[in-house]
Amino acid sequence: MSAGLHISLNAETLFHLGSLPISNSMFTSTIASLLILSFGFLVKISLDQKTIRPTGLQNLAEWIVESFLNFINSVTGDLKKSQIFLPSLATFFIFIVLNNWLGLLPIVGSVGLKIPQESKVESIQQLETTPIDSAHEVAEPVKHEKETFVKEEKHEKFVPVFRPGTADLNTTIALALTSVFLIQFFGFKFLKLSYLNKFFNFSSPVNFYVGILELISEFAKIISFAFRLFGNIFAGEVLLVVITYLTKVLMPIPFYGLEIFVGFIQALVFTMLSLVFYNMATAKSH
Amino acid sequence: MNTDLAIAILMGVGAIGPGLAIGLIGSSGLQAIGRNPEAAGKVQTSMILSIAFAEAIAIYLLVVALILKFV
Questions:
Q1: pLDDT tens column, A54-101
Q2: Do B45 and A9 lie within an 8 Å CB cutoff?
Q3: Are A226 and A172 in contact (CB under 8 A)?
């Protein structure tokens, strides 16, 4: 990549808490969580039980909750089930959409620090200049009989301070694991132990085979949830960076519109798929 | 080794499948809505779900291409 274009697949670490490295995407998703928590707290302290018609912030919160409940109810058809599914699904949607949209702010991905990095470089003759966005050591093959020597070279790497949380594979794998774990949890909660009949079904060889396939597809769900969300958001980031690098003004505007749309749709798809899987896992079998 | 050609072919040829799939899903969904406008809600939900599954295949390809390019 030419100098000046900085794209890195993995999230860079900003600092260390003890021995735990904190990456910039972890930092940004914590900020998003704090925003959601403070909104919830503000709604709580402004709740007024006395009025029949809510106004202001309480009205907004009630509208959000009611829309989610109607949406979930339209798929499950059972109000009690919808109320049990509501907290996790609403959290998924709000968390993912806020993380996706935070990636579109001007300071995210561009404001950063230069952190000095040490890397051992094997070089034959001249000073090895590694490209700015390379995160790995570059080793040059030995071309002739000269012996190679290992040099310790300090160069600075540009690390953006903010990065959208869902543009990091760690976050999306965590979300996918949470969702699939909740599928099993709701399955066991509603169907008790007969939920295992879905996977281990000994009534006939065909059903046994189908049960094995269902078990494998649970793991496929984790992979597909994680990579769908990561691929969409990270590719959106790369697209915006490349377009802004190529044409400095005016052309990025429709791509920003696309990214707003994609961020919303990906959150919606994650939530809707989780909802449908919850529903299928808790359906009373015939 | 220069992998630019591989990346380009990967995305170019690989996008044929999901593109066709999404088009077919959309077309059958629209036909179903046209025949039975009352069931539009249910048909729409299933259609969006199927489109998400089909698009995920294209996203897997995209992630492989990104890994080839940037790692």
A1: 777 888 888 999 999 999 998 888 889 899 999 999 999 999 999 999
A2: no
A3: yes
What is the CA A89 to chain-centroid distance, rounded? Answer: 15
User: Do A171 and A24 form a contact (C-beta atoms < 8 A)?
Assistant: no
Tell me the residues of B at the A interface, defined by beta carbons under 8 Å apart.
Answer: 41, 45, 48-49, 52-53, 55-56, 59-60, 62-63, 66-67, 70-71
* Residue ranges of domains in chain B, CATH in brackets: 4-70 (1.20.20.10)
- Nearest-Cα distance to chain B for A77, in Å, is 12
pLDDT > 90: what percent of chain B?
44
How far apart CA B52 and CA A273 sit, in angstroms, is 9
Pair of tokens at residue A11: 């999230």
Q: In chain B, which residue's Cα lies nearest the Cα of A6?
A: B70
If we measure between CA atoms, which residue out of A217, A215, A232 comes closest to residue A269? A232
Residue A153's Cβ-count burial label (10 Å; 0-12, 13-18, 19+) is middle
Distance between CA atoms of residues A150 and B62, nearest Å: 37
- From chain B, the residues in CB contact with A238 under 8 A are 66
Burial of A113 (0-12, 13-18, 19+ CB in 10 A): middle
Q: Which residue type occupies B68?
A: L
Is the CB of B66 less than 8 angstroms away from the CB of A269? no
Q: Number of residue pairs across A and B with CB atoms under 8 Å? A: 45
Geometric angle at alpha carbon A195, from A189 and A198, rounded to 5°: 155
Which among B45, B56, B71 has the least Cβ separation from residue A75?
A: B45
Q: Which residue has the tokens 């999404």?
A: B22
Q: Are B25 and B57 in contact (CB under 8 A)?
A: no
